[in-house]
């Protein structure tokens, strides 16, 4: 240290990769066994920390419309977008419609094909790392190259058409895309934040006031709160009846209480999650793996993955001047922020 050596640990290495906008192992490699194991360990750690806090002092993620605040269900996201794009459900519907119409259309499309997906064996997702495909996607977004630089002169880019989108989706099925999201206003992104598709009304508001705040998610209703209260009341009544009767048969009943309480946790969705793409008022494209205030950019920056099929359908339905603009919402907030999509090659 006296010779000028900088001492840093694992946390600082994660921050260093975030400032470089580079993926960090194993945080940002969900398609390998190490990434899947790390996600399971991280979910268990966050869940244990969430349970240690009293219910009145922790966030109710059900009311915030956050299905998975401690993990990112990449497999379910890729499967749902594959179902939407194979039958032409999301491709034929423009995202310039109203929020309620878009949400109901996506819900009907996913639920109508749930039985078909159950019969076929699901294929695992993968992360798109082909440089040629990444350059093509970067050219279809704005800016047209990595780190805000312009594309090389002389490189012919095919136009973004529905035929090009269908051919690209056929070549890269069940694929995720590593993206860099730069906030266009104030705020700091957090881990497991949702990346969503803006509606036509959101883009109009952004064109009028670029420095203004984005839209807000309406609060959701917690349908599991009454069930948890009923279970607590029934367990208390059973405990009082057992203690009053002085029955020694309470030993086989005691291990049932933690099992029943582990099924439903106040503020968290149970394990069979509903549709992750159409749960909120804005259609979900992906999630953030790491995000904070970036010292290299001077604003909030997030790194994460989005569905390739969902991103292509979004770019196809967006106007050229707003192409590459998305929405980002933290798990503990109802406020959406406008972000700029960048694909680094």
Short description:
39% of the residues lie in helices and 13% in strands. The protein has 345 residues and is an alpha+beta fold.
Mean of pLDDT: 78
Adjacency order of strands in the biggest sheet: 2-5-4-3-6-7
Order of helices and strands: HHHHHHEHHEEHHHEEHEE
Query: What portion of residues belong to β-strands?
Result: 5-15%
Give start-end ranges of low-pLDDT stretches.
89-104, 106-121, 144-148, 247-262
Give the CA-based shape. Answer: globular
Number of strands: 7
Instruction: Give the class from helix and strand content and strand pairing.
Output: alpha+beta
- Count of helical stretches: 12
Alpha-carbon Rg, integer:
23 Å
Question: Helical content, roughly?
Answer: 25-40%
Distance between the termini: 36 Å
Main sheet makeup: 6 strands, antiparallel, barrel
Characterize the structure shown.
With 345 residues, the protein is of the alpha+beta class. It has twelve helices and seven strands. The chain has helices spanning 10-20, 33-52, 74-86, 89-92, 99-112, 114-119, 131-140, 162-171, 200-208, 225-245, 256-263, 308-317; strands at 126-127, 175-183, 194-196, 284-294, 299-307, 325-329, 337-342. It has a six-stranded antiparallel beta barrel. The longest helix is centred in the C-terminal third of the chain and has 21 residues, at 225-245. It is globular. Mean pLDDT is 78; it is low at 89-104, 106-121, 144-148 and 247-262. Residues 222-236 have a biased composition (Basic residues).
């Amino acid at each position: 240290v006296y010779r000028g050596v900088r001492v840093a640990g694992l946390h600082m290495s994660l921050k260093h990769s975030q400032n470089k906008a580079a993926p960090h192992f194993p945080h940002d490699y969900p398609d390998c066994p190490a990434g899947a194991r790390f996600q399971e360990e991280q979910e268990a750690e966050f869940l244990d920390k969430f349970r240690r806090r009293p219910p009145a002092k922790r966030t109710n993620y059900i009311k915030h419309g956050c299905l998975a605040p401690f993990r990112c269900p990449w497999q379910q996201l890729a499967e749902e977008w594959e179902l939407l794009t194979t039958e032409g459900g999301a491709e034929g519907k423009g995202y310039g419609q109203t929020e309620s119409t878009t949400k109901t259309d996506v819900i009907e499309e996913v639920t109508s094909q749930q039985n078909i997906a159950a019969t076929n064996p699901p294929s695992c997702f993968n992360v798109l790392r082909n440089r040629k495909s990444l350059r093509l996607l970067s050219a279809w977004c704005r800016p047209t190259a990595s780190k805000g630089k312009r594309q090389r002169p002389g490189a012919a880019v095919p136009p973004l058409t529905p035929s090009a989108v269908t051919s690209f989706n056929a070549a890269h099925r069940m694929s995720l895309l590593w993206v860099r999201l730069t906030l266009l206003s104030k705020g700091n992104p957090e881990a497991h934040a949702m990346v969503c598709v803006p509606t036509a009304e959101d883009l109009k508001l952004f064109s009028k006031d670029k420095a203004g705040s984005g839209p807000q998610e309406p609060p959701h209703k917690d349908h599991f709160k009454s069930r948890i209260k009923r279970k607590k009341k029934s367990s208390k009544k059973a405990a009082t009846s057992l203690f009053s009767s002085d029955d020694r048969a309470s030993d086989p009943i005691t291990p049932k209480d933690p099992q029943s309480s582990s099924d439903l946790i106040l503020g968290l969705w149970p394990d069979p999650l509903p549709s992750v793409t159409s749960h909120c008022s804005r259609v979900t494209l992906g999630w953030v793996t790491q995000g904070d205030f970036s010292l290299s950019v001077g604003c909030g920056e997030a790194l994460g993955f989005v569905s390739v099929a969902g991103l292509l359908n979004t770019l196809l339905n967006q106007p050229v001047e707003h192409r590459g603009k998305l929405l980002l919402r933290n798990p503990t907030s109802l406020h959406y922020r406008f972000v700029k999509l960048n694909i680094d090659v």
